[in-house]
Design brief:
- The chain is α/β, with parallel strands linked by helices.
- The protein has a single domain, classed as 3-Layer(aba) Sandwich (Collagenase (Catalytic Domain)).
- The protein has nine helices and seven strands, in the order ααβαββββββαααααα.
- Helix 2 packs antiparallel against helix 8, helix 3 crosses helix 4 and helix 8 runs antiparallel to helix 9.
- The radius of gyration is 20 Å and the shape is globular.
């Protein structure tokens, strides 16, 4: 499990709300995919200048990584751009399950009713059909409007294409998954510890991509493992994580016998819970973790505290970033440019 700088999840419109039976047939794909809009670590790469080397570069990366998560104990305002009251209550009920383990408060209400988006909220939820199930990562949600979309979920009773009511289990799984992204979590199948690149049938993946209008670069962005960046609190891969999708068996050389194929995970795993508790602790500062070489995902492997103090106050964090750039010897104009970008990209200011 890792925290990741930024990406969006998008679902092909053809998926709609296919019935569970059809979801594993042909080249059916999971509901949420990372978008090419920002490659792995894109935010990190832009904000860590080449002049920062060695331990100093690691410090800069640590500051950027911390800035992309909410502060432990923070109240995160969530609003709805559309949808029925029943749809709102479903999202609220499910998303709040994360609060049992992560020390953040999802604030959904204003004057006793679900909040309507008026501007200035942290997470903006929409229900635009045929536009996918996706979410911005962490504090990047502040910049996106909407920052999350839950297609077909904006009514009291979502239905499959065959007219049958959608399973509450499936609705809950997708909502938990997308709010996991909003907390900064990313897809498990792209974990460096998952070792799935060698398991994938890339010809099948490219054919799937062609059917979806993707070139090879897009396919790689969706499926290749991500670079191991320790500042993003990686842990051993968790095959039971709510963030691990059940990809179509046809995409693996060994089909269902591949270690990277998993059935649908419908609940938060024990590692999901421990990980969130470590990133958003109720006491102290977030804990960095060291990835394990094991692919079994038996548990999070915690390392030492991060090399840089994790500052909760955002102005102090911006100042810390600026001071590190000065230590790297950057010209004043470049420091000013990167600091402005850091402030804008991370805090939406």
């Amino acid at each position: 499990m890792r925290l990741r700088s930024f990406a969006l999840c998008a679902v092909p419109a053809m998926m709609a709300l296919a019935s569970p039976a059809s979801a594993q047939s042909g080249f059916a794909f999971p509901s949420c995919l990372a978008s090419l809009s920002s490659g792995p670590g894109g935010q990190l790469n832009r904000l860590v200048p080449a002049e920062a080397k060695g331990p100093l570069a690691r410090q800069v990366r640590g500051v950027v990584a911390r800035a992309l998560t909410w502060r432990p104990g923070q109240t995160v305002k969530v609003c709805f751009k559309s949808g029925s009251r029943g749809a709102h209550e479903r999202v609220i009920r499910v998303a709040r399950e994360w609060m049992q383990f992560a020390n953040v408060v999802f604030d959904f209400h204003e004057n006793g009713v679900p909040r309507q988006c008026r501007g200035g909220e942290d997470i903006k939820v929409d229900f635009v059909d045929n536009k996918g199930w996706w979410s911005a990562y962490g504090t990047i949600s502040r910049q996106r409007d909407p920052s999350m979309n839950l297609q077909f979920f904006g009514v009291d009773t979502p239905r499959y294409t065959n007219g049958q009511p959608a399973s509450e289990l499936e609705l809950r799984r997708i909502i938990l998954h997308e709010f996991g992204h909003a907390l900064g979590m990313m897809h498990e199948h792209q974990s460096p510890s998952a070792e799935c690149d060698s398991e994938i049938n890339w010809d099948a993946a490219y054919r799937m991509g062609t059917n979806l209008g993707w070139d090879k670069e897009m396919v790689h962005s969706q499926m290749r493992q991500l670079t191991n960046v320790e500042e993003f609190n990686m842990t051993a891969v968790d095959r039971k994580s709510i963030m691990h999708y059940s990809l179509a068996p046809e995409l693996f050389k060994l089909g269902r016998n591949s270690k990277c194929w998993v059935p649908d995970n419908n609940d938060l795993s024990e590692q999901d819970r421990r990980f969130m508790a470590s990133v958003y602790p109720r006491d102290g500062v977030p804990v960095a973790s060291t990835p394990s070489t094991s692919s079994g995902g038996a548990g999070a492997t915690r390392g030492a505290k991060p090399p840089v103090a994790l500052v909760n106050d955002k102005e102090a964090l911006i100042k810390q970033y600026e001071e590190l750039l000065k230590q790297a010897g950057l010209a004043a104009d470049k420091i000013a440019q990167l600091t402005r970008e850091f402030r804008t990209n991370v805090f939406g200011q």
